[in-house]
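Same chain as my last thread, 185 residues:
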Amino acid sequence: MNQFNLNNMMKRLDQKLNLTTQERDNIQASINQNIEQKNRKSNRRFNSIPLAVAASLFLILAVPAVTPFLERNQTSQLLQAEEVETMVNSYLEALVTKNIEALVHYSDDLRFPDKEEQLAQYVTIDNTITHASMKELTKVNEREYAVTIRFIDEREPRPFEQTFSVRFQKGKGWKIIVGEDLPSS
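reply #2:
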């Protein structure tokens, strides 16, 4: 492949990918280096320059195509974790401020068949928790996290910890699962 064809190919590639001058120069230098290495190994039975050019072009085209997908996936996972963390903190604030409606909203209590029964029972609970904070949030899978919460209860001599599942429920969003037997600390 002569230098004229390589320059024309780089210009077309630059137009399609909207490369910066630095990116184009780096790519062209890489291709030239591959060509020089292949020319030094001229004792081979076949000419592998087209293969080197094709491999270089594949990498040039594949990396920009895959990178946005990977970045979107990482961004999506970070946003999901932030959404779960925000919901858990809202639940903890409702717990400490004794906001019963918010507690019912942010949780799914497996001990009660529906939200009305959950609300009716929560109103009768003597909540003595004075502080609650998230100690750890761990992703279990795409639709579930595990959260460890540290509680301070005025009736308990020492702080204690409890782990809850946080699950995504279709049409309802993320909910803390209450009434499920998980290990406590």
